[in-house]
Amino acid sequence: MNSSTLMQSTALAGLEFLLKGIQVTNPSTSSCSRDDDLQKTVAQIDRLTLAADAFRKAVDHQLSFYRRRRNEMASLILHCPDKILAHILQYLCASWSNPHRPEVLRLVCHRFQRVVESSPVLWSYIYVNELVPANLERTNFYLFKSKSVPLSILLNYSGNSNVQANVLDSILKHIHRWENVHLSLDIRTPTVQMDKPLQAIRLPERLSEAEAPLLQEFHLSTGLDHLWDDP
């Protein structure tokens, strides 16, 4: 049972106990009966007060336990060497589930910001999946921040656009740093409005001519039966 479920169960049990202690008495006409009703009401209030105090103590105990656990975990992170913290953050950044993770991690605290900014490997995971101009700026920013570190790139475009061509052109300039690269492009329907059509990128020629000494894995999908012209 996780902490959230345990706290909810404790709260529900306490509320149920408190509600069970509430009894509605019918008003009586005689003074003797009114005195009896008053004594019963006072007794109920006393029982509810004791139950509320016990419930509060139980909640405080649970909160104290989770605060200790939180402080223990924070202490481990705050006191571990920067290199170990960088390795932990690299594990988080390597996931494609959150392509903006380095940008988020550096907002956690001053130490995280220092470690993220001084660890080029955290910026070496480049994920581009939306046809928005910001992706070109973000891609170039990651290429700059990652310095000379090997790159893992996931480029997934379902449409043809200037953004796709420009992003592809940027990452091709760093082909010597490619390590794990997955390119999914749709170049079947070029658009006449494009300032830089994909044909101008010379993707087949550049891939065949370039040297990629670090490359371990490469996948290319273009939506075409063939990419290279027949000889």
Structure annotation, total helices: 9
Helix content: 40-55%
Structural class: alpha/beta
Beta-strand content bin:
5-15%
Compute the gyration radius: what is it? 32 Å
Mean pLDDT: 76
Shape: elongated
Query: Unreliable runs, pLDDT <50, ≥5 residues?
Result: 225-231
Major beta-sheet overview? 4 strands, parallel
Distance from N terminus to C terminus (CA atoms, Å) equals 65 Å
Number of strands: 4
**Helix/strand order, N-terminal first:** HHHHHEHEHEHHE
Please list the strands of the largest sheet in the order they lie side by side.
1-2-3-4
Give structural notes.
The chain has 231 residues and is α/β, with parallel strands linked by helices. Helix content is 55%, strand content 10%. The protein is built from nine helices and four strands, in the order αααααβαβαβααβ. A four-stranded parallel sheet has the order 1-2-3-4, covered by helices on one side. β1, α6 and β2 form a beta-alpha-beta unit. The termini are far apart. The C terminus is likely disordered.
